[in-house]
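The protein record filed here:
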Amino acid sequence: MDRLLTAEEIAEQLGVTPQWVWAQARAGLIPHVRLGRYRRFRESAVEAWLCELEAECSPRRSNRHAPLRSA
């Protein structure tokens, strides 16, 4: 089982404020687990979420700028 992290721990890893982490969790944008009144963040789920964000932001390959071949 992955370790469940607090918003403060996730904020430190991401280089953001804990308030930002809480806002993202409330908006349903960052994966989290509710344990009563507490919200915890599974390390592997946050890592997978980051990978998805990276994939969305990476430029798609385009043949438009590919060098022309001579015949």
